[in-house]
Amino acid sequence: MAAHDQPRRKLFLSDIDGTLMDSRKQIRDEDIEAIREAHRQGVVIALASGRMHAEIKQVMDLLEVPCYAICQNGADLVGLDGHAIRSFRYEADLALSVLAFTDREGLVPVVCGSDGNYAADLNPKAEQVGKRFLTPLRERKQLAADIAGGMKITKFSVYGEIPALQILLEELREQYGSRITASFSDPDGVDVMPGSVDKGSAAEALMELLGIAQADTACIGDSFNDLAMFRACSRSIAMSHAPDEVRAAAAHAADTVALGLRAWLGSED
């Protein structure tokens, strides 16, 4: 086969929570097999999540497929060898300001670094939130002092009732503007990233690294933090159970990752 006849490389990016993994932290057998089959066909697989790399690695181990990782909504882009290709961190002054701004009655703020997730007070509400993580949520009472002393922060995740989170989200955007990127990442959780950090910019960086054209990319997700990834990829797929606004932003919808992936690979567009 002549070089110009070689099939073009393709890139498939999948969100994890609510997309590849359900609320019980289970992955459908058919989704695992579809991803393995795509990999055998030469498709590059990337997992794009709000989770840190240690958690995403556990998902990779279940898939038994080498994957690139877009961690913590784009704060880290990690290669197949487990090393960061690019990383973004909060400036200390901005991190301290966001820490104070999100410390509100009824909300559970979680401070995230590349090596762990932390709460200033591991009270019963925080312990309940911690059950959703694949690694333990740790108590770190002197978070403000630690950040001022050089602790590197990748994102803030804030959990609580939806009305309170909607108010928080509006006030965050009003207060910080382009200095942050904030969106719902869970039905009861908002992620607050440094400005311009999102899954879409990380996806574009990965395309450039691999030399894969946007036309040869597809992604699937279920929440608002996936919208930037939808915009970055040629074929965007929303899970059928996603909020109306998320489904409206995607070109396609699917009940499972397997159905979305196989429809893309079987399509001619």
UniProtKB/TrEMBL annotation:
SUPFAM superfamilies: HAD-like. It comes from the Bacteria. Coiled coil: none annotated. Pfam families: Hydrolase_3. GO terms for molecular function: magnesium ion binding; phosphatase activity. GO terms for cellular component: cytosol. Keywords: Hydrolase. PANTHER family: HAD SUPERFAMILY HYDROLASE-LIKE, TYPE 3, PHOSPHOSERINE PHOSPHATASE. NCBIfam families: Cof-subfamily, HAD-SF-IIB. This is Cof-type HAD-IIB family hydrolase.
